[in-house]
């Protein structure tokens, strides 16, 4: 079974500051990794995903994440945040399993990013 | 517009009521999901339908009953709920096949309050 740990439940930052949201996972098999964002009163929206290849992946809204297999991490970063980035961010992992359970996506508890003026 | 539409957006019901949540997707996906999102807890997968067959039922109480009449529609029938069932219920869809890296597309959710 896989699990996801988001180390910070809340991250307050000032506008135009850089931000890193941390995510660690555990799995005994190869994984696919995702970051989703949830704005108030909305569902989750895909920010970016790591499937294979380059360990640095770029997503929407200027976000990027780096897959580090040795540290089992997939931290999300943005060099300069805006007020509009205030939202909850979820890291998720899908382990490659045989049989009919390949669809199972495990989410972290989320990190609330608050960008202050 | 996310491509996945959920109705109603808000629902208040008593513990003896019967109601249904509806989800519709226009993305041509062949798998649909119900998730429960409660405060301070990770998203909980409730049900998965792939090609209109239920393939996952994560020990969900029988007061929640899913229905998937076709690949575009998913329902969650609710009856005799408890106050702890109050949460945001999210529907999602994806394309299932030989490549299991297809991301989920979520609806905006139904905020359910059980009084």
Number of helices of chain A: 0
Low-confidence runs of chain B: none
- SS content category of chain B: mainly beta
The class by helix and strand makeup of chain A works out as: mainly beta
For the residues shown, what is the average pLDDT of chain A? Answer: 90
The tally of strands of chain B reads 11
Can you put this structure into words, describing what you see?
- The complex is a heterodimer of chains A (117) and B (115).
- Chain A has 117 residues and is mainly beta.
- Helices cover 0% and strands 51% of the residues of chain A.
- Chain A starts with a strand and ends with a strand.
- In chain A, 38% of the residues are buried.
- The mean pLDDT of chain A is 90.
- Chain B has 115 residues and is mainly β.
- In chain B, the strands form 2 sheets. In chain B, strands 2, 4, 5, 6, 9, 10 and 11 form a 7-stranded mixed β-sheet that branches. In chain B, strands 1-3-8-7 form a 4-stranded antiparallel β-sheet, with no helix packed on it.
- In chain B, β4 (31-37) and β5 (44-50) form a beta hairpin.
- Chain B has strands at residues 4-7, 10-13, 18-25, 31-37, 44-50, 53-57, 64-70, 73-79, 87-94, 105-106, 110-114.
- Chain B is built from no helices and 11 strands.
């Amino acid at each position: 079974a896989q699990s996801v740990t988001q180390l910070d439940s809340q991250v307050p930052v000032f506008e135009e500051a850089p931000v890193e949201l941390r995510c660690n996972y555990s799995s005994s098999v190869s994984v696919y990794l995702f970051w989703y964002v949830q704005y108030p009163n909305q569902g989750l929206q895909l920010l970016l995903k790591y499937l294979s290849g380059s360990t640095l992946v770029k997503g929407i809204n200027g976000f990027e994440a780096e897959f580090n297999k040795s540290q089992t991490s997939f931290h999300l970063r943005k060099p300069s945040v805006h007020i509009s980035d205030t939202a909850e961010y979820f890291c998720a992992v899908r382990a490659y399993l045989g049989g009919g359970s390949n669809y199972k996506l495990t989410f972290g508890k989320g990190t609330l990013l608050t960008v202050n003026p | 517009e996310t491509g996945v539409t959920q109705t109603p957006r808000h629902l208040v019901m008593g513990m003896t009521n019967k109601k249904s949540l509806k989800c519709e997707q226009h993305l041509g996906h062949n798998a649909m999901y119900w998730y429960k999102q409660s405060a301070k807890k990770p998203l909980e997968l409730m049900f998965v339908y792939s090609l209109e067959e239920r393939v996952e039922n994560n020990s969900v109480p029988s007061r929640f009953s899913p229905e998937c009449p076709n690949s575009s529609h998913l329902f969650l029938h609710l009856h005799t709920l408890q106050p702890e069932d109050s949460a945001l219920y999210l529907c999602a869809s994806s394309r299932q096949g030989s490549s299991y890296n297809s991301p989920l597309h979520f609806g905006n959710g139904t905020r359910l309050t059980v009084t």
